[in-house]
Design brief:
The chain is mainly beta and 301 residues long. The protein has 3 helices and 22 strands. Strands 5, 11, 12, 14, 15, 16, 19 and 20 form an 8-stranded antiparallel beta sheet that branches. Strands 6-7-8-9-22-18-17-13 form an 8-stranded antiparallel beta sheet, with no helix packed on it.
């Protein structure tokens, strides 16, 4: 399979495929603009670092585990076709099954500016159909360069409408969680998931002093992570998304997780996720498609 992938989709000097020690297949991208790695299981982008930055922008836990059927801690997990717990089936995985099942490469190429493009499609199986009995195609296109662009398209190929929740659950690398701020969501309403589920309104920039798990709703705004320690800003611009999830586990929850990179790996990441969740679920009509797009850009200050 590795030979076939490299023959059909490899790009000399830019894109190659290899097998991890766990047996999972990883796409390695390295061009003049940036580098990234992506696991075909889950279409899971694991790392991204533009050549203009000395520190990665997408965070991967140093204790991340690669295993068949398991999600990887860090990177940009694909949450689909629901976000959070399933509405009626408690036995189904949180955030859907897309991040733990195989995807197949369907296209690769080079953009005019030298960025590398890779498109994968979710592979259906008896396991997935048991959880999602709808006819559809789900594609993820990743464009790796000085910016990172991710496009997730859900195409309804059936005769009945269906409703999805979704997110690109991206972990961003920061200097320290206690000194960063997130702007762009001032005045937005959000569901506060810590200690219950309460609807609140954001007052000013977001800062962090404890566990944070918020779903901001009805906003397509660009967010910016202001990082004084690394002296940079990370811009997160999106379309096809009306929810933004902001999450940090903090020390107690991070210790329980066991794969956040002990002892303080959690301090070096924050999730700012482009999503459609809770109030912003998406109805995909029969014969139509919906695309969630997010682009990440880092600038030194």
């Amino acid at each position: 399979m590795i030979t076939a992938l490299n023959t059909q989709f490899g790009i000399s000097g830019q894109l190659s495929f290899c097998e991890d020690a766990s047996g999972l297949i990883v796409a390695e991208i390295n061009n003049a603009l940036g580098s990234a790695s992506l696991c075909l299981q889950g279409a899971h982008l694991m790392t991204w670092q533009p050549k203009s930055q000395s520190v990665p922008v997408v965070w991967l836990s140093k204790d991340a585990k690669m295993a068949a059927g398991k999600s990887i801690r860090g990177g940009a997990p694909v949450c689909w076709p629901w976000f959070g717990a399933h509405a009626t089936q408690s036995s189904f995985s949180g955030h859907g099954y897309a991040r733990t099942v195989p995807w197949q490469v369907i296209e690769s190429g080079t953009e005019p500016n030298g960025a590398t493009r890779l498109t994968l499609r979710l592979v259906e199986s008896e396991q997935t159909r048991a959880q999602w009995p709808h006819d559809c195609n789900v594609d993820l296109t990743v464009i790796v360069g000085d910016t990172l662009r991710m496009e997730m398209t859900t195409e309804n190929t059936g005769t009945s409408d269906f409703v999805i929740g979704e997110a690109l659950h991206t972990y961003l690398q920061i200097g320290d969680i206690g000194s960063v701020r997130v702007t762009g969501l001032e005045g937005c309403e959000y569901w506060d998931k810590v200690g219950g589920s309460n609807l609140r309104k954001q007052d000013g920039a977001i800062s962090f002093a404890g566990e944070t798990d918020r779903v901001y709703i009805n906003s397509a705004a660009e967010c910016v992570i202001h990082d004084e320690q690394l002296k940079r800003r990370i811009h997160i611009a999106k379309s096809g998304s009306l929810s933004t999830v902001v999450w940090t586990p903090w020390v107690e929850k991070a210790n329980k997780m066991g794969d956040m990179g002990q002892p303080d790996g959690w301090r070096e990441m924050v999730c700012v996720e482009s999503a459609n969740a809770i109030d912003n679920l998406v109805t995909v009509a029969a014969g139509t498609r919906h695309t969630l797009i997010v682009e990440y850009r880092a600038e030194s200050v």
